[in-house]
């Protein structure tokens, strides 16, 4: 069963009771999932190309290349330089990605004991970092130009962290509390 269907049939009624929400439209939902990969080596264009290719394989959607807004001389960075890539997933793709993340990728990490519950932003949105893209089953070791991490932000319609925590826990995110 797809995660979105499971949410509608099983998770939503439990959440309504747990959070004490009377109106169904007030229940937390996934608004979008943003996956961002920063590229450290700006001198080597193959690293950025590899990051874009890997992110496209992981998400099934073409990433956009992010560029620097300001020039920072300490980092040898000028405005307009490509510094990474990102993908925004909405709707069914967001739920499919979260299902894969919660049930395949995170449990596959060695010594995984859950994610920190302190990474909420105060409005029910959750951000987590991953150290390498090899944890995703689509990526093979031979295809990696440089091992890179990524930031995954789950934007929800929850009003506060308590609702966001209950929502993500009900979806299947393992917290280490």
Task: Explain what you see.
The protein is of the alpha+beta class. The protein has one domain: 2-Layer Sandwich (50s Ribosomal Protein L5, Chain: A). Helix content is 33%, strand content 19%. The relative contact order is 0.21.
Q: Would you identify the regions where 5 or more consecutive residues have pLDDT less than 50? A: none
Rg over C-alpha atoms, rounded to the nearest angstrom: 18 Å
Q: Helicity level, as a percent range? A: 25-40%
Total of DSSP H or I helical runs spanning 4+ residues: 4
CATH topology call: 50s Ribosomal Protein L5, Chain: A
Shape: globular
Mean pLDDT: 86
* Terminus-to-terminus distance: 28 Å
State the CATH architecture.
2-Layer Sandwich
In short, what is this structure?
The chain has 177 residues and is α+β, with helices and mostly antiparallel strands. The chain is 33% helix and 19% strand.
How are the secondary structure elements laid out?
Blueprint: H1 3-19, E1 30-38, H2 45-59, E2 64-67, E3 82-89, H3 91-105, E4 126-130, E5 150-156, H4 161-171
Antiparallel strand pairs: 1-3, 1-5, 2-3, 4-5
